[in-house]
Specification:
about 290 residues; alpha/beta; Rossmann fold; seven-stranded mixed sheet; 7 strands; about 45% helix; globular
Length: about 290
């Protein structure tokens, strides 16, 4: 990302989550209005008006889906897959949640299931500045909440988390959503190493990653996709295959207990299968 500028992909993901909550989306049954908790008031009111249109006119929603080339649906399904894995981790006894590259994540403000957890949101200062303003006055659902400023390529995650009160003797669950594609392999390995050092036995890591296929799109469109991310200042660099991620985790004492992909999420939830550019993203659940 550009120095001093909040993550543009974080802003894009917030917008996609909001759009996915509109009536008529194939994924509107996945999300809920809670995904819009961080959306500014004027935009939120606009979404209400847009939602009234999409509820009455399926054509309006088809047009919106075409404009986002299916990304709104993808983000909603990915979010739901992670939420389900998070609930499983809570049931397994995790009492701390660390969100790596948190962006504009709203889980601490929309999930009642976090009432017994302390949440640590890790990200760069510029993005967290927006998050601090957006959450001012919002009702916190989690037991506790901390902002932890970290640049994954420069800072020591362990030191920053411990300074903010993270307890490595308690079970923790880690969400690493939509971050690894923008990191070089060395940064991915280093972060997994630091997470493993801090994660007590039984802790879980929920990490999304993009495979070498990356997108299911016409060959001619792929260069344009890559250039688009370059122009946003967030080039795609960290592609992984399932066996590679499993090997990286095993090296740190993290065992894969689940690994699903965007096509699995779509089969489980779509009322219909829209024509779209499909990101070949996966969610791996690793246990310490």
């Amino acid at each position: 990302m550009f120095e001093g500028v909040p993550s543009l992909t974080a802003l894009a993901v917030l917008s996609m989550r909001a759009l996915s909550s509109l009536p008529g989306s194939p994924s509107d049954h996945v999300g809920d209005r809670g995904h819009r908790v961080l959306v500014p008031g004027a935009l939120d009111r606009s979404l209400d008006l847009l939602g009234a249109l999409t509820a009455r006119s399926p054509a309006t929603h088809r047009a919106l889906r075409a404009l986002t080339v299916g990304l709104a649906d993808h983000v909603a399904l990915r979010t739901d897959a992670i939420d389900r894995a998070l609930l499983d981790a809570i049931d397994a006894g995790c009492t701390q949640l660390v969100i790596l590259g948190a962006g504009l994540d709203a889980r601490a403000y929309r999930m009642d299931a976090l009432r017994g957890l302390d949440v640590f949101e890790v990200d760069v200062k510029s993005t967290q500045a927006i998050k601090r303003r957006a959450t001012r006055g919002r009702r916190l659902r989690a037991r506790g909440h901390r902002f932890v400023e970290v640049d994954f390529e420069r800072d020591a995650l362990e030191a920053r988390l411990l300074a903010e009160g993270f307890d490595p003797s308690e079970k923790s669950v880690w969400i690493w959503e939509g971050v690894t594609p923008y990191l070089p392999r060395a940064a991915i390995e280093a972060t997994l190493h630091q997470v493993a050092r801090l994660a007590d036995e039984g802790s879980r890591v929920l990490v999304t990653y993009v495979t070498g296929e990356m997108v299911n799109a016409p060959t001619w469109l792929l260069p344009a996709v890559l250039v688009g991310f370059e122009m946003l200042g967030e080039p795609l660099r960290g592609r992984l295959e399932p066996d590679e991620l499993a090997a990286l985790g095993a090296r740190e004492g993290l065992r894969v207990i689940g690994d699903t992909g965007s096509r699995d999420w779509a089969r489980a939830h779509y009322r219909e299968r829209p024509s779209r550019v499909e990101i070949t993203e996966r969610l791996a659940v690793l246990e310490r």
